[in-house]
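Morning!

This is the sequence you dropped in the shared folder:
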Amino acid sequence: MTSPTRFAFDTLSRGDVLPTVDLTITHDDVRAYLEATGEPAARWGERVPPVMLSALMLATLLGQVEIPAGVMHTGQEHESRRPVRIGEALTVTVTVSSYAVRRGALMAAFDAEARAGDEVVATSRASVLVPPPEGADTEGNAE
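The structure's back. Tokens below.
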């Protein structure tokens, strides 16, 4: 899963849609994930663990946006609409759902959607906070 385009975090705006990324999760991918987490493979069979899919959807964002130093991951939500099969071809699209500066801190949320063909199989939202730089004027608000 790679994307040739990288966006600077401070150039994003609410409503921006990042380029769609093709994603196919292999047996080796799932095996490595299960070994890393200690989850039993028998539990999942031919299905992709939903938390793994959520992490890969977040990785799609990280592969496309240059994340600034000091960023804090403040929240994560995931909804599975149906099980995803190992080897199933997916496309992942990430949208900037909110982007605001408050008292010098940048707050943003990114919505990711995984599709198998025309069917949405999972959605995920990641929220982040970039604290203001030391010595920055934290009185101003901008959106």
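Headline: The radius of gyration is 17 Å.

More detail when I'm at my desk.
O.
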